Give the backbone structure.
Amino acid sequence: MKRLTASVLFALMMLGVGTTYAFSDAGTAISTWFQHSFIERSSEIENAATNDMIASFTRLSIDIQNAAQMAGEQLMEFQLKMTADSEKTVDEHNEHYIQQLQATKENLKKQNEHAIQLYTEQAKAREAAQITKDAEAILAELLEEQN
């Protein structure tokens, strides 16, 4: 029985060794399957990554366009505000200068009126003094002629 068991065991071993050598191409099949599976999975990952990158670039492009549009709008608002503020400042300064000119005009007018009045009074006083002097001279001449 030992012999029979040993013979069966030996026969099985030989059969296994023969089968292993008979299927010596099994490693190539596994390698081919693994390589095919790897390429297929790599292709799926590459496609997913490409799609994600395209989606990311699309979102980035849209975000950049939105940011550029928003910056343009903000610049336009700022420009309009600065222009309005500048116009307001110029108008305020203009109004202030007009008020100063009006005040100066009134002061000059008052000074001119005062100067004209003073000149008129001085001229009247000179004329009155001259008339008085002339009248006294005429009267003195008449008195001398009568004497």
